[in-house]
Amino acid sequence: MSLGNSLKHARVAQNLTQEEVSKKLFVIRQTVSRWEQNKTMPNIYVLKDLSKLYDLSIDDLISETKAQIHEDEEEKSMNKVNWFALFGVIAFNVLLLSSGGIIVVALLGALWVITGAFILSPVFLLIGLLSGTQVYPLVATGVCAVIFIIGLFLFPLAKKATQYLVNFSIGYVKYNFRTIYK
């Protein structure tokens, strides 16, 4: 039973009309009607006044509502698939992943490759110097140091972008599940 039905049964049990309840609570009759039809809900202060008026505790007024909510949650199990939503989600995701998603992942991968290469540039310079295959002038060493510093600044950016993309993807998948299952 809903809160509205509980309120209506409690009002009828007290032999009160909606008009009488509205006068005692200083609201219009339509407000009482909306509560009983579950179109709106009374606030906690009004529930307190209603419980006094109907000689019931607030818990008694809403206990059946809590049971109904629990039953509704059990009824909304993952066994009921909305097939139209499933088709829509699959079609939209194929379009999304075939264009934008692939581009975003490629750009993120490129950011990580560039960041890694910039950070490892002193290692490549050192390997070239120690192996004797290359002779680097002092300017190249300075440029290598600047690139290394740029790589250090790019690392937090790449990490933050990756975390954002992962969190967005997880939220997107959860949203799709809520859409598919009734």
UniProtKB/TrEMBL annotation:
Domain of life: Bacteria
Keywords: DNA-binding, Membrane, Transmembrane, Transmembrane helix
Molecular function GO terms recorded: DNA binding
Gene3D superfamilies: lambda repressor-like DNA-binding domains
Membrane-traversing stretches: 81-97, 104-129, 135-155
Pfam families listed in its UniProt record: HTH_3 (PF01381)
Database matches in PROSITE patterns: HTH_CROC1
Domain HTH cro/C1-type: 7-61
CDD domains: HTH_XRE (cd00093)
InterPro entries in the record: Cro/C1-type_HTH (IPR001387), Lambda_DNA-bd_dom_sf (IPR010982)
Protein name: Helix-turn-helix domain-containing protein
Source organism per UniProt: Pediococcus parvulus
